[in-house]
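In response to reviewer comment 3 from the previous cycle, which asked for concrete evidence that the modeling workflow produces usable outputs, we include below a single protein chain processed end to end. The sequence was submitted unchanged, and the resulting structure tokens are shown without manual editing.
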Amino acid sequence: MLKLVVQNWGIGMLILISTLFIISKSNAQSLVHDDYAEVFVYQDTVFKSPFIDIDEWRDTPVRHRYVHGGFEGTETRFSFYFPSKEDYAGHFFQYITPFPDNENLSQGASGEDDKIGFSVSHGAYFIETNGGGRFDFTGQKKASDPLIGAYKANAAAAQFSKIIANRIFDTPHTYGYAFGGSGGAYRTIGAIENTEGVWDGVVPYVVGSPMAIPSVFSVRMHAMRILNDKFPQIIDALEPGGSGDMYAGLNEEEQAALMEATKMGFPPKSWFGYKTMGVHGFRAIYQGMTSADKDYFQNFWTEEGYYGFNPPASLLKARLQKLTRIKTGISYEEALKDNLVEPTSDQERGTAEAAWKSLGDVDGSLPVAFQLEDSMPNVNFLGGDLKIMTGAAAGKTLQLLSIEGDKAVLGATAPQILAQIKGGDEVQVDNSNFLAAQTYHRHQVPGKEYKVWNQFRNDKGEPLYPQGPFLLGPMYTRGASGVLPNGKFKGKMIMLESLWDREAFPWQADWYRTKVIENLGDKANDSFRLWYTDRALHGDLSEQEDPTRTVSYVGTLQQALLDLSAWVEKGISPPNSTNYQIVDGQVIVPASAEEREGIQPTVVLKANGSKKVIARTGEKVNYSAEIKVPAGTGEVVSVEWDLDGDGTFESQGQFKKEEEVTVKSKYSFAKPGTYFSVIRVASQRNGNSKTVFTRIQNLDRVRVVVE
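The workflow returned the following structure tokens.
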């Protein structure tokens, strides 16, 4: 017994000693608490003292080494996610959010949306920062240096990451690539145009022009107000088997509003989401807009030449000005329960689609909405103001996002103002300024290079309407990227745009392409690509609002990063840019994959040989689809059918993975009605059907009328 005890004690001590050795060795290699000030020399002395406070291995979403830190004396924080040494490919992918926010927004994502998993599994380490500190939508916090949020914080973190990568992997050189969408596209372009030696290439996506804000929102809201009841027939006309004439059955005012939005670049097929698209990012810029151009909002209702001076009946009907009183505040939890607001996850906050959302103070101590003593009239309320008439906050104006009866939902509001508002305070609900904002673009006519504004010029090229003293769009662009984009950059760029993008109209990617050509001329193709994705919206999340109509472009973004790194490091030219034309503000691409190029497959679905078929209940409908992948860009790896159009897809099963594939199916309908049958396809560069990443999607629809 004694012998056994001694033996066990000896084994235990051996294990203990070994464990202590391992721990000691690990701690010796830890990056935490090291002094990096001497080894990190950066051009901006604001970022002179980097630190690391977390260094640990994590197993999800994939095995990686997580390093967190920041720069002393600043609010800048960063997160690095390193692969194992044997998997490291010598470069990083850095995500740049639409607004400065949080350095950990990408944590928790899964599947195709998993930026960390994609990067690490492809040999890259992943970087995310808070951009110098979360953006304050209330306007109370003023940045000491706006360039910090624009690109300086991201650049400092990227440069410091190279020192850490060298320490971990013992490699002399690290290549770096940044990517960002929407406001993040402005910041990504600003980053590569205004730095040197930080990033070797970038992938900006769903990008706007310097004139995008607020014009892309104002023209859309104008059409939304006027066409609200007519969208079903507009959408039906554009569907397969429809008339093709979206103006049919509209009165003069309605036709004009639809044409105005279309010529400005709004993709008409994207109106399918009219019930849910709301005003999108406009809620984040509205207050700044009314503050910056007060004269416009005064002139709109009082001066000739403005839409509100002699307003049509539809505008007067939409106007709401009503005095009432505050009854009580509504907390965030109460607002969620009553469906007054929508929850937004950290992952959504960091995306092109939802980064602009702000619920104000959500800690439960202050309201995000108010219950009023009176219910508001039923108007098509897209947004407005709550004017405080009495009480401690008298004279203040709060942004309203929505009205639901007697409940008014607030936009981002300074906490100190919210704390002053009490029950019994007299207020006025007023959407006058919000209505005025909807035709603001008519009074912001820029240079002639912006051809979509030609509809607001006379035969002499002069503006048809009174013009403001300044252009607001470039001011917003500078606020995001620090400077105006000019097409001058060192390195390489693959730009992505979506043809159904209703927030960043597709022509704006072409605007930047022209700037690149102006600077690089015949050599532009050596450094720049532009890929359009059909049936894709603005948002960079795989989940679609209506999966029977649109597809994710996330796989295209991932492939662009891989192609970009191969271009820079190995000299492998990526596939050609998409071929397209711009006609009256609309980007038109060829129907065939051979002519269209880019990397997205094309798919043409027919039912009984047509885009529209009439069938009887129980009758078999024969479907055939031709799928083609642009030459050299991959093979078809996925075919899914949703023949009754309910959003549930079933896999095709076995088929030969090639660049060109023809598939067939059959289906019979049990009930009469109009159905839209859908096929969704995906290609992958290496023909890998197992991976969730780098799948390039597209879909097509046909109309089936069952009698």
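Residues 1-30 form one domain. We consider this sufficient to address the reviewer's concern, and the full set will be provided in the supplementary archive.
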